[in-house]
Amino acid sequence: MMPIKRFTLAAVFLVLLAPARGWSQQKPAPEPPATDDQGPTSTNQIDVPRKKEPTEVAPPAPAEEKVKNPDGEIFSLRVDVPIVNLNVNVVLDKTHQFVPGLKADNFLVLEDGVQQRVQSIRIAQTPITAVMLLEFAAPPPFYPYPTTPFTQDMLNASATFLRTLKPEDYVAVVTYDIRTHILTDFTNNKDLIYDAVNSLQLPAFTDTNEFDALYETLDRMTRIEGRKYVVLISSGRDTFSKLTLDKILAKVKATPNVTIFTISTGGMMRQMSDTRGGMDGPARLDYLQADNQMKTFAAMTGGLSFQPIFQGQLPDIFSQINDSIRNQYILTYRPTNAVNDGSFRKIKVLLVDNEGKPLKMVDEKGKQLKYSIIARDGYNAKLPVE
User: Fold this and answer.
1) Same domain, 103 and 207
2) What is the bridge-based pairing of β-strands 114-116 and 107-111?
3) Which residues contact 7 (CB under 8 A, 6 or more apart)?
4) Residue 198: which domain range?
């Protein structure tokens, strides 16, 4: 295994996103630029820069073929050929930086355990369309005080995320307590977004219906074309939703082209309570369950989940989210199972070298680097149109 030199990757953000003008208006999906594939120079290692999400199922592509019958007549035969566009992010575990330079042969895609042939690969660097879904409620010990550890963490995280936005990004702001509240529809006007977040003054309720709010948000986002993101900033607790966890997980699984990133609030308060023995068993269990739910929402959609304790962690968190959103591999393949029966197809993505062995990455000193592959865990095969 030969040592390799690092290089610095300069991210280039292209203006590719058409304006989104509301929940109900469809917006053309941005077309990421194609890039030349530059693969590893060795069968076991790739170049790693120093420093600096999801599966899309395209509509079946109709293929038309003219066929002659025994009588010499000609008719047209239409065949629906499904195509899967798989968004994959590869990052180093230690620095969370995006790993460029991978080729199609480096990706081993398994659908329901069956290997798929990757037909094309490109890197997407695109603007984003995202919903900030914010929990704005006060747990009983803090109600009705205007500032709580949870709301303050939410406001800090929101402000940090807004500072990362580009002029081409479109963002909507939605809060929830016992119901959802749309503070601003999709806009690239930063002033409107800041005003929406700054309008949050005093929580009106203690209940947090997270499942209902996330379901409603995902339902609205299905009306918008292209890749979308949800930035869920919340304690993760659900107290009074009509929906069960199973139902919201089914909704997350069935919603295409949406990646969820979660940031948990109240980390410092929870740590201090644990240290002082101030949080009883049931309360601690509630928050552990909330953490698991937030992680599951992110993992199912190819996103990332964070549980920050200090405000100083937020810039690095949103830097990781930006890297994940703006730098992705887009893999295209035709599934071996071409039946559009509406079933859920389980996907797993691995990295391999030219010999089919697990791909190894090393730094300039020859030390092996650990990496993570982030991708949606599956998709629903579309039912044929009758």
Assistant:
1) no
2) antiparallel
3) 47, 49, 50
4) 129-325
Token readout for 168 is 């081409």
Please write the tens of the pLDDT for every residue from 320-377.
898 788 888 999 999 999 888 889 999 999 999 999 999 999 988 889 999 989 898 8
Question: Residue with structure tokens 């740590």?
Answer: 271
- 91, 324 in Cβ contact below 8 A? yes
Q: Identify the three-state secondary structure at position 296.
A: helix
Residue 27 corresponds to which tokens in the numbers above?
């917006």
Maximal C-alpha separation, the chain: 88
Q: Phi first, then psi: what are they for 267, rounded to 5°?
A: -65, -45
| 144 upstream amide cis, omega within 30 of 0 | yes
Verify that 204 and 259 share a domain, yes or no.
yes
Residues 229 and 257 in one domain: yes
Domain boundary among 288, 309, 325: 325
Q: Are residues 310 and 363 both part of a single domain?
A: no
E strands within the chain?
Answer: 55-68, 74-92, 107-111, 114-116, 118-124, 129-135, 170-176, 180-187, 228-234, 258-264, 305-306, 328-333, 344-351, 361-362, 368-369, 371-375, 378-380
Query: Cβ distance 260 to 299 under 8 Å?
Result: no
pTM for this entry: 0.66
Specify whether the CB–CB gap between 41 and 362 falls below 8 A.
Answer: no
Interaxial angle between packed helices 281-301 and 245-254, expressed in degrees from 0 to 180 and rounded to the nearest 10: 20
